[in-house]
Amino acid sequence: MVQTLERLAKPATAAHPAAKAVPPYSWSKALEAEMAPLYARVQHVVTPMEWPHYAPLIKSINELKQQRNAVILAHNYMTPEIFHCVADFRGDSLQLAKEAARVDAKIIVQAGVHFMAETSKLLSPDKTVLIPDMRAGCSLASSITPEDVRMLREAYPGVPIVTYVNTSAAVKAECDITCTSSNAVKVVESLGAPRVLCIPDQYLAKWVQSQTKVEVITWKGACEVHERFTGEELQTMREAEPGLKIIAHPECPPDVIAAADFTGSTSGMIQWVKDKRPPKVMLVTECSMASNVAIEVPDVEFIRPCNLCPHMKRISLENIYDSLVNLRHEVTVDPDVAHRARRAVERMVNLTN
Ligand code: 13P
Ligand code: SF4
Q: CB–CB of 180/265 below 8 Å?
């Protein structure tokens, strides 16, 4: 029997934080049989040792979602047991933002990082948006503040400011429009200006600059996962693995992008692998994505450089379950900030619809 939600959902206080929820199911022969079809889907990337731990949590989460009228939006970097076993919608930042705007549920659990949960709240203000761990941040989001943006406005009067969605709502509120890695060039060109500020990712901006005649000015932010890759490393992999195709995320430094066969957003990369079906491929991005795609293209061999995002990896089945039971941690945005930030996000969404 599922535990009663009322008992588990007593509001927590700072002095008495709600206890970590314990799932009502445990591993048994019956559960093993019931969950066998789901395990068959992920068995290439989830070991038989791990499954008895995950399966009770997965069953509990999927039941709770229905009782709570909740959906889970999962980014492509979530681990496979989250991505394939409990997520209702999966995708890159843009796809998740669009889904948040149209989803029909009372609660959104963001299996991703904090800026993604804020974006969901901006586009779905009447819904309760939860993030399983408030500490799931992003090195790009923490590289710039609203004061920095105001300083840029003064330094570059009249130059439109495009902010990557990987920023706080307070930073978005100071900008003209947002972009994601899948639409950055289109957004920059849509403004019809000769010069555009594209913040805060210096590498995404450099990549955009290589694709457009618009002059792109940037900031000094970087993704702590993608900036670690080097062109030299890619060259070594090519020599070691003849026939290897290498595809990279635009948050990578220019020498990495120059050494890659394709550059695109996380979903762009997934689509490229599905369309091209290379015998061997290396995804120059966060590590979990290769496991998630591998399930869908078993004929492709993945060569894995394993750079993990410590923020994305804060999200687990345990804290997703806890989040649904205790309705924590709720993500809210100050109404004035939300009003201005929403304008910037909606402008992007309307452009790409
Ligand atoms: P995508 O929009 O390509 O999914 O990128 C989000 C992100 O955080 C990549 O590091
Ligand atoms: Fe931020 Fe990089 Fe992690 Fe994406 S992978 S959330 S850009 S730190």
A: yes
Co-location of 163 and 195 in the same domain: yes
Domain with 255 in it: 226-302
d(CA 160, CA 176): 6
CB 75 within 8 A of CB 92: yes
Q: Would 339 be classed as within a structural domain?
A: no
The 10s digit of each residue's pLDDT in 276-333 is 999 999 999 999 999 999 999 999 999 988 899 999 999 999 999 999 999 999 999 9
Going by the annotation, the residues of the binding site for iminosuccinate are 75, 93, 164-166, 181, 249-251, 266
How many angstroms separate the alpha carbon of residue 295 from the centre of ligand 2? Answer: 23
Euclidean distance between CA atoms 316 and 293, whole angstroms: 19
Q: Which residues line ligand 2 (CB under 6 A)?
A: 113, 138-140, 166, 223-225, 251, 286, 309, 311-312
> Based on the structure, what is the number of domains in the chain?
3
292 Cβ closer than 6 Å to some ligand 1 atom: no
- Please name the residue whose Cα sits nearest to atom 7 of ligand 2: 223
Q: Is the distance from CB of 244 to CB of 303 less than 8 angstroms?
A: yes
Any ligand 1 atom below 6 A from CB of 93? yes
Domain of residue 206, CATH code: 3.40.50.10800
Residues 35 and 65 both lie in one domain: yes
Decide if 13 is inside a domain: no
Co-location of 33 and 133 in the same domain: yes
Q: Is the per-residue pLDDT at 238 higher than 80?
A: yes
Q: Domain for residue 5, yes or no?
A: no
Do the beta carbons of residue 120 and residue 108 sit within 8 Å?
yes
